[in-house]
Specification:
The protein has helices at residues 2-8, 42-53, 103-109, 114-118, 141-146, 151-161, 200-212, and strands spanning 13-17, 26-31, 36-37, 63-68, 71-80, 83-91, 95-96, 125-128, 132-137, 167-172, 182-188, 193-196, 224-228, 236-245, 248-256. 23% of the residues lie in helices and 34% in strands. The chain has two domains: 2-91, Diaminopimelate Epimerase, Chain A, domain 1, CATH 3.10.310.10; 95-255, Diaminopimelate Epimerase, Chain A, domain 1 (Roll), CATH 3.10.310.10. It has a 15-stranded mixed beta sheet that branches. It contains seven helices and 15 strands. With 268 residues, it is an alpha+beta fold. α3 runs antiparallel to α6.
């Protein structure tokens, strides 16, 4: 599986297998070109659409459970006639690390001036809903676009900051005409992914971060929209719904839709 993922060289390649335990409908294994992941968002949603296209999931089906490396992961389905139009996955409740004080180091890791990070007025912090990501807020969308993925600089910052993370998600909550709540990019060179056009496993942590730091009020936490992949020419919209009760985050859901880009046969 790892060899195939490396050959395909997509951000992630999934393999759908029979369930290994009760309460699971399908076992899903997910690989980047360099490593297997215990969970991921975009591949989970895409695999649901692939199963629907293959007729394995029928329009009467409203939900099912994937067995991921982190355990059972429920997926909810929305149909229009016989076409699957939306799928969303449940992620774990967030875990927040202590904020990282070295804003200059975070800026250097992304090839940006310190003001690009300091001007956001928000902490640099690792957040996980199954996979840990370093969340780096930036003052403007232009700063997001100007960031550079330098594997050496990013790895140096991770080491100096003492963080063990899957990648770095940089974003700005500066509003644009697209109405997105946040505009971001994701770099994970350590996983063989210089940049990812859509990262559902980072969208959950981002949504929790925005709610935790009151960028998004609790009343609007169920309708967060993130925009990613624009710089790559592959714009992707990710829908995030954060459940909040008495100030605490009680649920995390990430979803969207997928389109068929191609299909074929791989000879092994």
């Amino acid at each position: 599986m790892q060899a195939i993922a490396n050959e395909m060289n997509f951000s992630e390649t999934t393999f759908i297998l029979p369930p290994e335990q009760r309460g699971i409908d399908f076992r899903l294994r997910i690989f980047t070109p360099a490593a297997e992941l215990p969970m991921a968002g975009h591949p989970t949603i895409g695999s649901a659409f692939a199963l629907a296209r293959a007729g394995v999931l029928e329009p009467a089906r409203r939900d099912f459970v994937f067995g991921l490396g982190i355990g059972p992961t429920p997926v909810a389905l929305t149909w229009r006639g016989s076409d699957l139009t939306f799928a969303s996955m449940t992620q774990r409740r967030p875990m927040f690390s202590k904020a990282i004080a070295d804003l200059a180091g975070a800026a250097r890791a992304l090839g940006l001036p310190q003001a690009a990070v300091a001007g956001a007025g928000l902490p640099v912090q690792v957040v996980s809903c199954g996979l840990p990501y370093l969340i780096v807020p930036l003052a403007t969308r232009r700063a997001v676009d100007n960031a550079v993925c330098s594997p050496e600089a990013i790895e140096t910052f991770f080491r100096e900051a003492g963080v063990d993370t899957s990648g770095v998600f940089l974003f700005s909550h500066e509003r644009g005409t697209d109405k997105a709540t946040a505009y971001g990019r994701m770099f994970a060179p350590g996983l063989g992914v210089p940049e990812d056009p859509a990262t559902g496993s980072a969208a959950g942590p981002l949504g929790c971060y925005l709610v935790r730091h009151k960028v998004v009020p609790a009343a609007k936490a169920g309708t967060i929209l993130t925009l990613q992949g624009v710089k790559m020419g592959r714009p992707s919209h990710l829908h995030v719904s954060i459940g909040v009760e008495k100030g605490d985050i009680t649920s995390v859901r990430v979803g969207g839709e997928a389109v068929l880009a191609g299909e074929g046969t791989l000879y092994i």
